[in-house]
Amino acid sequence: MVTYSTIGVLGAGEVGRAVAGQAVRHGHEVVLGNSRGPQTLKALVAELGPAARAGTAAEAAEPEVVFLAVPFFAVPELADLTDWSGKTVVDTTNQFAAAGPWRGRYDVGDLTGSEWVARHLAGARVVKALNTMFASFITADPRHAEGRQVAFYAGDDADAKAAVAGLLSEFGFAALDLGGLRAGGRLMQLDGPLNAKHLLLQDVG
Hints:
Elements: E1 6-10, H1 14-25, E2 29-33, H2 42-48, E3 52-54, H3 57-60, E4 65-68, E5 88-91, H4 113-120, E6 125-129, H5 135-139, E7 143-144, E8 147-155, H6 158-170, E9 174-177, H7 183-188, E10 200-201
Parallel strand pairs: 1-2, 1-4, 2-3, 4-5, 5-6, 8-9
Antiparallel strand pairs: 6-8, 7-8, 8-10
């Protein structure tokens, strides 16, 4: 399994904070970046501890694996942030047309949300994950007496998927492969049958 000492997190909202917290708790260094600059992240990195640091958005995009937790409509702004070629991008976004209260779904035509994301981040190995659950479920310990919280994932690159599944498992989730970005992504995205479904896997033995 590929391991990553440093993980980038783009976006410092509820999901970005939850992912960063899990990564730090499991021994990774985290670079957080957002559109407003590192000075706005001082309180968050102090809360996360010495393994976390604030950076520019470009610095948060430097590691080999980057969690994408920005608003969906902001993704095109990231196209020239770095050379995305070969990077594993964990797409946690959902196709909300605007921030705040529900204001409709962003139109990407026949594409799934993550296929659209992949088109904007040229060369990135995009894996859809963690978008189906609320941030509070990402933050919490996914291991329960009744079983482990299931984390669905989908992607078109086998090595990237294996690496992301390894991270999800390390965080304590039961990682469940749903296939490629088209078929799996449709199951996971807004209005998909698995969106906002919180399931537990009962381990045997």
